[in-house]
Amino acid sequence: MKAEEIDDDTKLSEIKVIDDLRKKIEINNEAYDHDPNTNSNPPCSVIVAYVNGEKFKSGKIGYAYDTNSMPYVVLIPEAAGSGALAHEIGHVLNYTNSTGNKDDAEPDPTQPSHNVNPGNLMYHIGGDKISDVQCKKFRESTIILRP
Ligand SMILES: [Zn+2]
Fold first, then answer.
1. What pLDDT, in 10s, does the model give residues 38-60?
2. Are strands 72-77 and 46-51 parallel, antiparallel or unpaired?
3. Cβ–Cβ contacts within 10 Å for residue 58, how many?
4. Does the predicted model carry a pTM greater than 0.90?
5. Between vectors from CA 88 to CA 14 and to CA 22, what angle results, nearest 5°?
6. Measured in angstroms, how far is the CA atom of residue 86 from the centroid of ligand 1?
7. Continuous segment of H or E residues that includes residue 73
8. How far is CA 132 from the centre of its chain?
9. Of 1, 51, 93, 146, which residue is least crowded by CB atoms under 10 Å?
10. Ligand 1 centre from 17 Cα, in Å?
11. What is the CA(58)–ligand 1 centre distance, in A?
């Protein structure tokens, strides 16, 4: 599937290769990396897939699917920069907040999953700034592994 074929209405189940991989990981705990430091297989928290193309059909440069369970899924067109990945991972960290609050720490009233401040990583057009309150909330994510 190409980026230009994916939009806001595209369901994860319609992207067969990702849906199959996600089910394989859920069912068999396969297809993820062994951690040589702990000699264990940590849970696969997020599947990041780069998709052929420059932008999605919607004009967006990233999607983070709130699957309500691991592994979460992030799609990025191959032409997008690293900021797009950082922004989408930010969404996943908010989706997995231990309090259940999936909004940004400083939500835009019209788009609560995005930050209200231009230039912020989680502004609807992602920038490169992260606030202290956002860092605190990101650390509340249940997918961050702790010793
Ligand atoms: Zn976003």
1. 766 667 889 999 999 999 999 99
2. parallel
3. 14
4. no
5. 40
6. 10
7. strand 72-77
8. 20
9. 146
10. 23
11. 13
> Cα of 91 to ligand 1 centre, how many Å?
7
Query: Ligand 1 centre and the CA of 132: distance in Å?
Result: 19
Token digits of residue 94: 């908010």
CA 23 / ligand 1 centre spacing (Å): 25
Alpha-carbon distance of 142 to 102, in angstroms, equals 12
Per-residue pLDDT reduced to its tens digit, 65-122: 999 988 899 999 999 999 999 999 999 999 999 999 999 999 999 999 999 999 999 9
User: What are the angstrom distances between the C-alpha of 80 and each of 38, 56, 129, 144?
Assistant: 33, 10, 18, 25
Cα-trace Rg, the chain: 16
State the sign of the Cα–Cα–Cα–Cα dihedral 141, 84, 121, 60: negative
From ligand 1's centre to the CA of 21, what distance in Å?
Answer: 24
Domain ranges of the chain: 1-80, 81-147
Q: How far is the CA of 113 from the centre of ligand 1 (A)?
A: 7
